[in-house]
Design a protein that fits this description.
Blueprint lengths: L3 H11 L18 H5 L4 E7 L3 H17 L3 E7 L4 H12 L6 E5 L12 E2 L3 H6 L9 H6 L1 E2 L2 E2 L2 E2 L1 E10 H6 L15 H13 L8 E2 L5 H14 L16 H16 L9 H10 L3 E5 L3 H6 L4 E5 L9 E4 L1 E6 L6 H16 L2 H4 L4 E2 L2 H4 L2 H4 L4 H4 L6 E2 L12 H14 L5 H16 L17
Parallel strand pairs: 1-2, 1-3, 9-10, 12-15
Antiparallel strand pairs: 3-13, 4-13, 5-6, 7-13, 8-10, 8-11, 8-12, 8-14
Helix pairs in contact: 9-10, 9-18, 10-19, 18-19
Length: 451
């Protein structure tokens, strides 16, 4: 629980998906990065957290860059996903031993002490290599801006999706003329869909898998539906909690109803839900990174952003982004090569899209090659209605916010706490976090950088 990437790797292996060795250092993959470095004019050290299928796709893009730029040697190292990665990156930056280029989840950038542990991007250099602000969704670009400077260059967004079995939904009469799930615009409509889907589902299978006991997934689902209701977290100055407990109760009751109405089995964890989907369960909610698993299994399926049951479209989104870990002597040819490498990967993310992620570089989304990707082209609209965590130091993928509030959502969904009580606990947790100091720089959210 609480380690989505671990669950993902288990899923890829346990369900017969992609089997790709992860690495610590490029040489560990046996591809000869050190040999490539011989004779190169410039060397870029690059740290990332990509394993499994993502790791394979990243290596393919790096190899293409190496071939196109033989004068730049890229030494890439893959570190353990989650807190170990961020801890090591922070220590390296603080000790002036940082790599030239790194990757972070965009939601974690605000808490990483921009200006002290991260260096800002030179937008002029990025433009020189073909990447400009106008090539991005405006909201996504602004999330990487702190105190007027760009500290994160997004590579993608990865979103929570509603995966559905077309064969089951066709039997239930729930597919439109376009072969996609019928539109849903309210909780009642959604539960009507589940009711009809259940009638068409083989015995022994649940109707929907939704990671009921996983604190990260339940938190991500909550963020999506709370955003659909127009819910807010803090005021603009991050000095007051604006969390709406009435809206929170609506979301918690909605999530809980999947269990109480018998559509989601609380005894099934994430992996069991995925297995059930492979075996004919009509729905599962999870991240777009599961696309290679289900496509590899040759299922007749679709994937759409989480249903807009509360009146507006919004599905949880995070972003893998390139960052420049702080170096006291950053500059020169190596720094320019780091800009060039990041810009190249961002612009050549068709390979990355095969792993289910939505490329952040918007020109890619309009290409014929991307439009042919299925089901990626079905959920690409998520770029325009991202539900993200608040821009505070304790937010971001597997951050303190998810660790503190995610278990409270789980307690409501699984029935150990009433929604009203859970909502109050969530508000109290947010209040405590707002006055807590960031261990990176000793500042509260109100004292930290602003967009």
């Amino acid at each position: 629980m609480g380690r989505p990437d671990l669950n993902r790797r288990q899923l890829l292996g346990g369900l017969g998906g992609l089997i790709v060795a992860s690495s610590f250092g490029f040489a560990a993959l046996g591809t000869g990065a050190d040999a490539l470095a011989v004779g190169a004019d410039t060397r870029v050290r690059y740290w990332n957290l990509f394993s499994g299928g993502d790791g394979a796709n990243m290596i393919a893009m790096l190899d293409a860059f190496r071939e196109a730029n033989p004068d730049i040697a890229v030494k890439d190292s893959t570190l353990q996903w989650g807190s170990p990665f961020y801890t090591k990156l922070a220590m390296a930056a603080a000790g002036n031993r940082a790599p030239d280029l790194g990757v972070m989840h965009l939601g974690r950038v605000t808490g990483f002490s921009p200006g002290r542990l991260l260096d800002p991007w030179d937008v002029g250099l990025l433009a020189k290599y073909g990447v400009r602000e106008q090539d991005y969704n405006p909201t996504l670009w602004k999330r990487g801006v702190i105190d007027g400077k760009l500290y994160a260059l997004p590579l993608d967004i990865h979103v929570q999706l509603c995966f559905y079995r077309k064969d089951v939904l066709k039997k239930a009469g729930l597919l439109g003329d376009d072969g996609r799930i019928v539109p849903v615009t309210s909780p009642d409509e959604w539960f009507d869909v589940l009711k009809e889907a259940k009638r068409a589902t083989k015995k022994g299978l649940q109707t929907i898998g939704m990671w009921n006991s996983d604190q990260n997934f339940q938190w991500w689902f909550f963020v999506a539906f709370y955003t659909q209701l127009g819910g807010t977290w803090f005021n603009a100055a991050n000095t007051e909690v604006t969390f709406d407990t009435d809206k929170a109760v609506q979301v918690l009751e909605f999530l809980r109803r999947h269990v109480t109405d018998g559509y989601s089995d609380p005894g099934f964890g994430g992996l069991a839900s995925a297995e059930q989907f492979l075996n004919g369960s009509p729905f599962v909610w999870e991240g777009n990174w599961s696309v290679p698993v289900y496509s590899g299994a040759k299922l007749d399926y679709g994937a759409t952003p989480l249903p807009p049951v509360f009146g507006r479209q919004a599905t949880h989104a995070e972003s893998h982004s390139f960052v420049l870990p702080h170096q006291s002597d950053r500059g020169g040819a190596t720094n320019e090569a780091a800009h060039q490498l990041a810009a190249y990967v961002v612009q050549h993310a068709q390979q990355w899209a095969a792993g289910g992620h939505i490329p952040a570089y918007t020109p890619t989304l309009s290409t014929a090659a991307y439009k042919k990707l299925d089901p990626q082209s079905e959920y690409v609209s998520a770029m325009d209605h991202q539900a993200t965590e608040p821009k505070v130091w304790f937010a971001g993928s597997t951050g303190i916010l998810a660790q503190r509030v995610g278990p409270i959502v789980v307690s409501s969904t699984t029935g150990s706490a009433k929604p009203e009580a859970a909502a109050e606990r969530m508000r109290k947790a947010l209040t405590r976090l707002l006055t807590t100091k960031n261990p990176m720089d000793g500042k509260t959210a109100a004292e930290g950088g602003a967009a």
